[in-house]
Design a protein that fits this description.
Number of helices: 13
Number of domains: 2
Largest sheet: 8 strands, mixed
Distance between the termini: 21 Å
CATH architecture of the largest domain: 3-Layer(aba) Sandwich
CATH topology of the largest domain: Rossmann fold
Oligomer: single chain
Strand order of the largest sheet: 30-31-33-32-34-35-36-37
Protein name: S9 family peptidase
Keywords: Hydrolase, Protease, Serine protease
Structural class: alpha+beta
Strand content: 25-35%
Radius of gyration: 25 Å
CATH class of the largest domain: Alpha Beta
Family: Belongs to the peptidase S9A family.
Organism: Mesorhizobium retamae
Shape: globular
Pfam families: Peptidase_S9, Peptidase_S9_N
Length: 701
């Protein structure tokens, strides 16, 4: 369906073409828009002003074109922004979590964009502000807080920030008594750190020039960071690395992993000079995570064919694999997602029959019980506890119609206490909405779960517009949780739907495996099948479906645009990973080597090359009549580099048929996560929603 009548007739930016080609496995590709990739991208991530003028000029022209085509929605965007902001409690505050003599939490002040971190006396009292994000952000076009962690003696705060959007974080130490930062200041870190047991120093991850977490250091408070002790260096660029600690403050855990293999190294938090001790050497396909358990570590693992994971234990002083013993056996179809250990209990979050559930296990007796919930589809999260020796753990609950709720749960008495229900200041009546979980048959007979919500007054007769969201990669499950933003569409007659497609773990680990590498096409075919099922069931019609996805979900958007452009009335691709083959062939980029297990290594394998080439959106742009497309990106994004969507948009305009426009909005002051403030981000959502309303003819609704 041509939508040109909805947009003014304005000439789109036309990117120059400079011949460029590459050859792998005897296959030669031509990429005339490769010049949009800044040769000095590492420097640009740290200082955007270093971007080449020719590239900057083109990106600014794209922004001007997008602004012109969406100019008639400016007032609508303001209305949408106001509505979404009105559903946010401006002076919201978390429920403080107890730790020793204090309870720690975060809050926002009226009009504030950034969080504040505070503490109160353990059982309540006056708040003491430890860190005010709004003050720290003053004068900066971009600012995002990273990790914030108090020392166990409650005297210092370890915190970090990113002021470019490139995710190079600066770590600082704040003296809580004076409220001043110490001289210790470490740049180019991963954004968090872990205190040593005596609180005289901390462990942290440093990023290299290619934005990879390659080294773990220990920094002694008051010393020169150039003298920090190297604890561990990872030689394989294909692995991510992080450092964490236990709540008992006894162990430092160095986690090393790619998307299918993991490894841990341990050292005592009381001895920062010790050499890290290997738990189980990396073995391709073997995954495991450690959780404290006093005299044991609990180990969540897929060892021995436990595809949906099992729980083992091992003595803390010798947790090598030979000493692992089974605690919770593997049960096919029950995916164990995470575990939290307490002195007397072991809590696990798992997914069975497509829904999450929490199971509490008494460590001594092995007796287990479930925490029950009533709704048809819902989302759960484990918040855990700062404390290890406690009977109380915290969890969160929501559904597409039920605002988020925070509970404390007494594992001994089985009593749950509602601490907080998400407040919607402008009002919310769950009775006005209908939520459903339907199953859409895919191309091979698999049933794809779909969570959806619509207003009770919306006619389900094929006339309603629909925003269909999808992701489908890395095993990430998109929860059926409460989303105040989408109500701005739902209240205007939209059906809002989430497609739980293969590539996620929505139906177990096999659901993930059946949507990666050689099976990646299932992800795209599932999403298309969901769109067509919603039409068949008269929830909507093809020309009224707007598809939305971001990052790897943006790759999904590019793929479905190539495969079935007629099935959608519009596409919103946020920070879209659309130039998959080129990126996976460039081992200098931050995420390329660690991503090979997810997508395949086209450098080493001709089969992987051909598999990726067959679906990579940029490589498969053709002459189809694409629906209107809005692409959104950030200049300093280290995860999906800005040139991927820039090249994709240029190629779409060159090759597509029809007159439907392709719009490109690039934030010149942000990265992968978009604008950093909680309200600034709403402006980006308002643009996306205004586009959806515009292309479905609901702009004035």
């Amino acid at each position: 369906m041509t939508r040109t009548a909805l947009f003014p007739s304005v000439e789109a930016p036309k990117a120059k073409k400079h011949h460029h080609s590459d050859t792998h496995h005897g296959i030669t590709r031509t990429d005339d828009y490769a010049w949009l990739r800044a040769g000095n991208w590492q420097e640009v991530f740290k200082d955007p002003s270093l971007l080449a003028p020719e590239i900057r000029s083109h990106l600014e022209a794209e922004n001007a074109y997008q602004s012109t085509l969406m100019a008639d929605t400016v007032d609508l965007q303001k209305v949408l922004f106001s509505e979404m902001k009105g559903r946010i409690k401006e002076d919201d505050s978390s429920v403080p979590m107890k730790d020793g003599p204090f309870a720690y939490g975060s809050s926002f002040k009226l009009g504030g964009e950034q969080p504040r971190y505070f503490r109160t006396p353990r059982d309540g009292g006056e708040q003491e502000i430890l860190l005010d994000g709004d003050l720290e952000a003053e004068g900066k076009p971009y600012f995002r807080l990273g990790g914030v962690d108090h020392s166990s003696d409650h005297k210092c705060l370890l915190w970090s920030f990113d002021d470019k959007g490139s995710e190079f974080h600066t770590l600082l130490v704040r003296d809580i008594e004076t409220g001043k930062d110490l001289a210790d200041r470490i740049a180019d870190t991963g954004g968090s750190g872990v205190w040593s047991q005596d609180n005289k120093g901390f462990f942290y991850t440093r990023l290299d020039a290619n934005h990879r977490p390659s080294k773990i250091f220990f920094h002694a408070i008051g010393s020169d960071s150039q003298e920090d002790r190297l604890i561990y260096e990872e030689q394989d660029p294909g692995f991510f690395m992080n450092v964490g600690g236990t709540r008992s403050n006894e162990w430092i855990m160095i986690g090393i992993n790619d998307h299918e293999t993991s490894e841990y190294r341990l050292l005592s938090a009381s001895d920062p000079l010790a050499e890290p001790k290997l738990v189980a050497a990396r073995e391709t396909g073997l995954q495991y995570d450690l959780e404290e358990g006093g005299d044991v570590f609990f180990i969540l693992t897929n060892a021995d064919g436990a595809k949906d994971f099992k729980i083992m234990s091992a003595p803390v002083h010798d947790p090598v694999r030979a000493n692992w013993t089974e605690v919770v056996a593997h049960e096919p179809g029950r995916l164990i997602l995470s575990v939290i250990g307490f002195k007397d209990y072991l809590v696990r979050l798992e997914r069975k029959d497509g829904l999450p559930r929490i199971v509490v296990r008494e460590r001594e007796s092995g007796e287990e019980h479930l925490i029950f919930f009533d709704e048809e589809a819902f989302s759960l999260g484990l918040s855990g506890s700062y404390e290890y020796d406690t009977d109380v753990m915290r969890f969160t609950y929501s559904s597409m119609t039920t605002p988020a709720q925070v509970f404390d749960y007494d594992m001994r008495t089985r009593q749950r206490t509602l601490l907080k229900t998400q407040e919607v200041p402008s009002g919310h009546d769950a009775r006005n909405y209908v939520t459903r979980r339907v199953m859409a048959p895919s191309h091979d007979g698999e049933l794809v779960p779909v969570s959806l919500i619509h207003h009770r007054n919306t006619a389900i007769d094929g006339t309603a517009p629909c925003l269909l969201y999808g992701y489908g990669s890395y095993g990430i499950t998109i929860p059926a949780s409460f989303n105040t933003n989408c109500l701005s569409l739902v209240d205007r007659g939209f059906v809002y739907a989430i497609a739980h497609i293969r590539g996620g773990k929505d139906k177990g680990y096999a659901w993930y495996e059946d949507g990666k590498r050689a099976q990646k096409a299932n992800t795209f075919k599932d999403f298309i099948a969901v769109a067509r099922h919603l039409v068949a069931e008269r929830y909507t019609s093809s020309e009224r479906i707007v598809a939305q996805g971001g990052s790897a979900g943006g790759m999904l958007m590019g793929a479905i645009a190539n495969m079935a452009p007629e099935a959608f009335g519009g596409i919103i691709a946020e920070v879209p990973f659309v130039d998959v083959l080129t990126t996976m062939l460039d081992e200098t980029l931050p995420l390329t080597p660690p991503e090979w297990p997810e997508w395949g290594n086209p450098i080493a394998s001709e089969d992987d090359y051909k598999t990726i080439a067959a679906y990579s959106p940029y490589d498969n742009v053709g002459g189809a009549n694409y629906p209107p497309i809005l692409a959104v990106a950030g200049l300093t994004d280290p995860r999906v580099t800005y040139w991927e969507p820039a090249k994709w948009v240029a190629k779409l305009r060159e090759l597509k048929s029809g007159d439907n426009p392709v719009l490109f909005k690039i934030n010149m002051d942000s990265g992968h996560a978009g604008a950093s403030g909680r309200f600034s981000r709403l402006e980006e959502v308002a643009l996306n929603y205004a586009f959806a309303l515009k292309v479905t003819g609901k702009q004035t609704a």
